[in-house]
Amino acid sequence: MTRRLEGRVALVTGASRGLGASAAIALAREGAHIIATARTEGGLTELDDEIKKVGGSATLVPVDIKDFPAIDRLGAAIFDRWKKLDILVGNAGVLGKLTPVAHADPKMWDEVMAVNVTANYRLIRSMDPLLRQSDAGRAVFVTSGLAHKCWAYWGPYSISKAALEAMVKTYAAENATTAVRANCFSPGATRTDMRARAMPGEDPMTLPHPDEVAAQIVPMCEASFSDNGGVWKYAPEGLFKQF
């Protein structure tokens, strides 16, 4: 049986755990070679074991997503080895501290913006030439419903995700006449460590597992997925376009 992403090269950030790890495994199961980045080398090693179990292959890149020159070096390394990038999944993100905007610590604010916004800009900057070398470059960035709901005390996170969506939509518009398509994926409440920190009183077993949610990222990475500049949301009954 031909796998849906056979022969494709996919870069996944924040791939050592949670939704990122599940996305990497789901893409690998469909035949994509995974370039997995994360800060924790141990987590990447565990991911590699899981990818091998589904018959996939991976290149592990331990890197702090805030090391922006390292992102440039990664782009150069991908070009040297593959000459292209078919799939980019910008998943790495941080929650920050839940606090009134007026009380937000500047250091915490800067970290949230660096990881959730600037790192993804640097990924676009470095990977765009490689995505354009693909016959169907696909970029998917993980957003949140908080980009629109704007709950009290979630300011840094909400603002960063709103900025991310604006950036991805702009990038998508700039690629309207190319073979590159860029969209956002909103996973909703998912059984992850970040969700547990944000909602400590919530029963995680009432939430979908990251594997279930990440499976809906796969069709967004296929060459046949033609939407551009959309925000697509996970739902148990299937992926749907939210905005």
TrEMBL record:
InterPro entries registered for this protein in UniProt: NAD(P)-bd_dom_sf, Sc_DH/Rdtase_CS, SDR_fam
GO terms for MF: oxidoreductase activity
Keywords, in A-Z order: Oxidoreductase
Domain of life, per lineage: Bacteria
Family annotation (Pfam families): adh_short (PF00106)
GO cellular component, one term: membrane
Keyword check for Zinc: no
PANTHER family found in the cross-reference section: DEHYDROGENASE/REDUCTASE SDR FAMILY MEMBER 7B (PTHR44196), SHORT CHAIN DEHYDROGENASE (PTHR44196:SF4)
Family: Belongs to the short-chain dehydrogenases/reductases (SDR) family.
Protein name: Oxidoreductase
